[in-house]
Write the structure tokens for this entry.
Amino acid sequence: MLRNRWDMWRYAALLPLRDGEEPVSLGEGATPLLESRELAQQLGVGRLWIKDEGLNPTGSFKARGMSAAVTRAKALGVPGLVVPTAGNAGAALTAYGAAARLPVRVYAPETTPRGILATIRALGAELCTVPGHIGDAGAKAKAFAAESGYFDVSTLREPYRIEGKKTMGLELAEQMEWRLPSVIVYPTGGGTGLIGMWKGFAELREMGWLDPKAPLPRMVTAQAEGCAPIVRAFAEHADRARPWENPTTHASGLRVPGPLGDRLILRALYESSGVAVAVSEAAIRAGTARIDRTTGIDAAPEGGCALAVVEALAASGQVGPQDEVVVFNTGSGVAYRE
Ligand SMILES: *Cc1c(COP(=O)(O)O)cnc(C)c1O
């Protein structure tokens, strides 16, 4: 199954790529899985690793999904690409659009971190900032796609980004020598990373790359208290999430008040005996600083949120010395600095 290349297209056999087709690639994926004995000890868990997705092109795991989506869009002969974004998806689409020589338009809230907006401009997309949150940007992107014929790369409105994102799960399994940790903590906005990994694990199991008798990891959604639609739905044992009113958090990737994939996210949490936990802005800042200063990884606030959730779960006894925990740092801290 494995191709001899060191990016996510190593798993091309499980990705939407036709025979003989070249992917639109910037070397996405193949990110390090770094163990921190010190963090494990501090938090009271057996072992703890950070999967550092901040090392992807344009500094976030969004690169994986955009590499897959732009590869298909180019093959389909689209005239251009459009996306609404909380920031990183727009930067990633801009880069892959440039690599594919396709025009890109990005709709982003004006509150998007300035470093990310600067990247989008530098790599040559047409950037439209809008008042409000990603939902407001989504309406604009949809209208523009309808009038222009541009391919709308919005989260879960097309099938390919999730295929790219599932490679986080495939890669994790390979890095752990075809077994998985007992707990995966993932900072959840639109949820495609979590849904994609869950899909990837099912595929690996079906193909015999994972022991069918070994339990799959408990999937944990980490959110900010200022925007926690999945945490609220999980607490209500609901199968859908109600949109969050007035979403606020400095972890901009988590400012997604009405995720389209709510049912799929919740299903993965329930099926895996996982949980959804929200933490405060102060806890997110402390978690980010803790990753940075304990490990040297330059974490995004979303990664800090995930670590803060491990801390909360350890404090309530929901994870402990028996657990092997993988925390996803989904982006680089660089883009969030003023
Ligand atoms: C988009 C984003 C998220 C949320 O990811 P989903 O898979 O859509 O839930 C988390 N962290 C960062 C840095 C992001 O850019």
Observations:
- The mean pLDDT is 96.
